Amino acid sequence: MKFVLEVDMGEAAFEGKAADELGRILRYWGGNLRHYALAPGDGETVYDSGYREVGAWRITAPEAPASP
Prior knowledge:
Layout: E1 2-7, H1 18-32, E2 43-47, E3 53-60
Antiparallel strand pairs: 1-3, 2-3
């Protein structure tokens, strides 16, 4: 499985405060993940501090091994 977090920082990378916003997002979801089974298909929308949708996280299924 994979945990995938995608965040669109916009043209100005959160008005020059990318580290602050990304840190807040990671802290929030780091603490909130315990409420999920973390099984393939789980995921949620991610919002910035202004409550604007900026991305999402998701759990994806394991990739099939490549055939020889």
